[in-house]
Design brief:
The complex is a heterodimer of chains A (336) and B (247). Chain A is α+β, with helices and mostly antiparallel strands. Chain A has nine helices and seven strands; from the N terminus they run ααααααβαββαββαββ. In chain A, helix 1 runs antiparallel to helix 2, helix 2 crosses helix 3 and helix 7 runs parallel beside helix 8. The longest helix of chain A has 48 residues. With 247 residues, chain B is an alpha/beta fold. Chain B has a five-stranded parallel sheet, with helices on both faces. The chains are: A alpha+beta (336), B alpha/beta (247).
Chain lengths: 336, 247
């Protein structure tokens, strides 16, 4: 911030030194020195004053704060100009009263324009930052519930079929579906334990298994995972949904999804493997979406310590998720 | 009315069967879990109506419908789908009926009563719709040909080569050959990833390439895995083929 003020002030000083139409080069260098000194002095004092006044300014509305800041900057400029004049007098410049008035008036006129530009710049930058923040918030909201509509309607169809043939199972599907959607609608900053997330994954797969029958085979190897690790809800479920959508549904014979995980040092490491039926490897469209979704949610929660990796080999597609192990006891007090 | 229910999910088939039984508008003469089975049963039982799921593994509903055009008496087709398939808009413009799952009983009744046989143009448009809206270019999984009034399906991964001859293209697989009425150029566009052009009149499967041979007259021919006949390689495609076989 201070550096930016210094640079801008210096550029302004160059501009002012270059502006006069007459004058020799040697003179300009001398003038540049004086102008720089004055402009830096005025700029840094203005910036300092505004910093000191910040708590008071923050309480005002945007317009009022802008106006007060502007008047403060003009006041600082007037005082600095006056002080500069007196310094010059002490050094024996011997200017007339007319020159004094002209000097102050000219500085204030230039300052009126430049201060307005500077405030405008900060205002625009402030707006821009606010937009960016609002946008990322909206993005996060949009990211939170990415359960595919496809899955919702298929499940509804499953319930409709089971309602006659097996009402008890129809009930179970309805309950599981409700749990999944309740979680997808929960607050984005919410954290759940890995145990809860795995339970959600089981409920999800229970529904899919009814629909896909023998085509879906699931192998769990998650006993070594710390169930109390905290994660954003529905971090793993979309990856399983992906695995079903791209790995099982397109295959006439179905296939096996493997979920394995362990604690690796201070990191939780989870891998989800599914067959990659021919033709699906060339269309990563839907895949990307769920992966980016999980990646962004993990990054929003854990920062750069979280990683999502993809491997495709020998007809298998493997997604790896790695993130720091935060248990409820050692959870750092950090906003999402 | 004789109805064939086609869906890869058992519960979905079961539900349709129940609804149709309750409506009393017709009887379910069969069920199929894949597009291939659907075509085979259709040829055998000649149902009046097909309730055809769009999203199925292997041959999907749209492709199945396109192959139906080759049956002697193509049945009426009502598509079913769970959610916002990209083909729905085309169905509307082509007046092709479709049902959204979970299917409502009254809607099903209405569709069955209004079920009409689709003409070739409609079936073609349906297939095309799948290509237009799809996120990636869709290629058929099978080719179909009429053989003595039946449909003969050839899985595209089993095709060894295509050879054009005037109006027809010969499709050769391990079992033998069938004739289809398609242009070599459009086959090349659709299956370019699997096949390579070796002559003005021939495309061969990349995976079937075995070796390049030089004949006594200075021409080149290619030997394919599993079959004895050789195909001529034109001068123009020789260097490209050499590169492919080396790499």
């Amino acid at each position: 911030m201070v550096f930016a003020v210094v640079v801008i002030a210096q550029l302004l000083a160059f501009l002012l030194a270059l502006a006069p139409l007459n004058g020799l080069t040697a003179d300009r260098w001398r003038e540049l020195g004086l102008i720089s000194l004055f402009v830096q002095w005025a700029a840094l004092t203005s910036a300092g004053t505004l910093c000191l006044a910040r708590p008071q300014l923050a309480r005002l509305s945007n317009t009022a704060a802008g106006l007060v800041a502007y008047l403060l900057m003009m006041l600082v400029l007037a005082i600095v100009s006056e002080a500069a004049f007196h310094v010059m007098e002490l050094l024996g410049a011997g200017h007339s009263a007319y020159w004094h008035a002209h000097f102050i008036a000219r500085n204030l006129a230039m300052g009126a324009i430049i201060n307005a530009l500077v405030l405008r710049y900060f205002f625009v930058q402030h707006q821009w930052r606010r937009n960016v923040r609002a946008e990322s918030q909206a993005r996060l909201q949009a990211l939170q519930s990415r359960i595919r509509p496809h899955f919702l309607f298929n499940s509804m169809n499953t319930i409709a079929s089971l309602a006659r043939s097996d009402p008890a199972q129809a009930e179970a599907v309805t309950e599981n579906l409700a749990d999944l959607f309740r979680m997808s609608l929960s607050d984005v900053r919410n954290r759940i334990s890995l145990g809860e997330e795995l339970e959600l994954c089981r409920r999800y797969l229970y529904i899919e298994a009814l629909r896909l029958g023998e085509r879906l085979d699931v192998a769990w190897d998650v006993d070594a995972l710390p169930t109390d690790a905290l994660i954003p809800p529905l971090t793993l479920q979309p990856l399983l949904e992906n695995a079903v959508y791209h790995g099982i549904e397109p295959a006439t014979a179905g296939g096996r999804i493997e979920i394995s995980g362990r604690l690796d040092g201070a990191d939780v490491d989870i891998q989800i493997t599914n067959p990659a039926p021919e033709g699906t490897t060339q269309r990563p469209d839907g895949n990307r979406l769920a992966l980016d979704n999980t990646r962004e949610r993990l990054t929003a929660c854990f920062g750069p310590g979280a990683r999502v990796s993809i491997e495709a080999e020998q007809g298998l597609y493997r997604v790896g998720v790695r993130f720091p192990y935060l248990s409820p006891d050692n959870r750092p007090d950090r906003p999402a | 009315m004789r109805i064939l229910v086609v869906d890869d999910e058992r519960l979905a088939r079961e539900r349709l069967r129940n609804l149709i039984a309750e409506l009393g508008v017709g009887e379910v003469v069969g069920e199929a879990a894949t597009g291939r089975d659907a075509l085979e049963i259709t040829a055998r039982l000649e149902p009046d109506v097909l309730l055809l799921d769009i999203r199925m593994p292997g041959m999907d509903g749209l492709e199945t419908a396109a192959h139906l055009a080759k049956v002697d008496h193509p049945p009426a087709v009502i598509f079913t789908t769970a959610y916002g398939d990209y083909a729905l808009r085309a169905f509307e413009t082509q007046a092709v009926d479709y049902l959204l799952k979970p299917i409502r009983k009254d809607r099903l009744e209405q569709a069955l009563q209004g079920a009409r046989r689709l003409n070739r143009a409609q079936l073609g448009a349906v297939e095309e719709a799948g290509n237009q809206g799809a996120p990636a270019p869709r290629a058929r999984t099978h080719l179909s040909a009429r053989v003595h009034g039946d449909i003969r399906l050839v899985p595209i991964e089993e095709v060894l080569y295509f050879q054009a001859d005037q109006k027809y293209v010969t499709v050769r697989d391990q079992q033998g050959q069938v004739l289809i009425e398609e242009a070599l150029k459009s086959l090349e566009e659709e299956f370019g990833e699997r096949f390579v052009r070796i002559h003005r009149n021939a495309l061969v499967a990349r995976r079937a390439l075995e070796r390049l041979e030089r004949t006594g007259t200075g021409r080149y021919q290619v030997k394919l895995k599993g079959i004895e006949e050789r195909l001529e390689v034109s001068r123009r495609h020789l260097s490209g083929l050499r590169r492919l076989m080396r790499g």
